[in-house]
Model the fold of this input.
Amino acid sequence: MDEQIRSILAQETTKTRKIQLLLLLGLTRRQVADLVTRGNCGWVYNVYKKMVSSGTFIPSQTTAVPTSVLNYSFNHRFGVEIEAYNCSRERLARELRDAGIQVSVEGYNHDARNHWKLVTDSSLEGRDTFELVSPILVGEEGLKELETVCWVLDACDVKVNESCGFHVHMDASDFSIETWKNLALSYKHIETLIDSFMPRSRRDNRYCKSLNALPEARIIRAATIHELQQVFGNNRYYKVNLEAYSRHRTVEFRQHSGTINFAKMEKWIRFINGLIIFARTGQLPNRTTLDRLPFLDEKQKLFFKLRTKKLAVAV
Done:
């Protein structure tokens, strides 16, 4: 977030606009006053009041916004599942090994491995379908390994279609129940925004169901992860899969469309990493816009804006 703060402070705009942007970023009024108005809290409070009265800032939904600047560096443990077709598992395994990637060809299973595995998946359509599942990857080094895998997939002319998805597991072993609830509510609150940069086939289907119908009051009342799982009907086929915690101690994000494009994968992984870090201390307000997401820098926001425009034209 430090980069975002510096970017806002460097903008050629009014102090009032800088105050607005910093408040939307999640800083406290005292922090904003120290950064912009040399400690003049009255000025910041007046801007804050006008934002509240105009509806651009909703205090009742942002009471849990962090009071300190969060570090959104990516050092999370994660794993991916890449669904695709058009290459035999045996050939792909050979090419991955030649690129230095440890991989095995196996039958369908949910077992964790210390290496990549190529398994079958009956839900996929096309010739030579497969699911490529990673071992536990960590932070930036994990992303580099994923990039190498994407190079191999591209070289093997691997393809995706609407039956394919790209699933990401993020380590949830240290989540408090408040983090779980904040994460579920934040995703629910910005689901329409996320839908806008996902293909129509990934906005609501049997394998990645919408969170919109889940009762917010029940999410808030949940006292344990098991109670929260019950709100989801103990069903893993939601855009955010809480059932993964019982088996892997992870939370699974199932919404992203099938892809072998590393840029798309990386941007989505960093997006959900930021969402998780934010959820440790607060939840996003309902209908938060892309520009107001506190965990994206300007380049990341541009990526999702352009993705949204491209998909809108394609519909």
Remarks:
- Residues 169-252+260-314 form one domain.
- The CA atoms of residues 217 and 231 lie 10 Å apart.
- The chain has 13 helices and eight strands.
- The chain has three domains: 2-57, 77-164, 169-252+260-314.
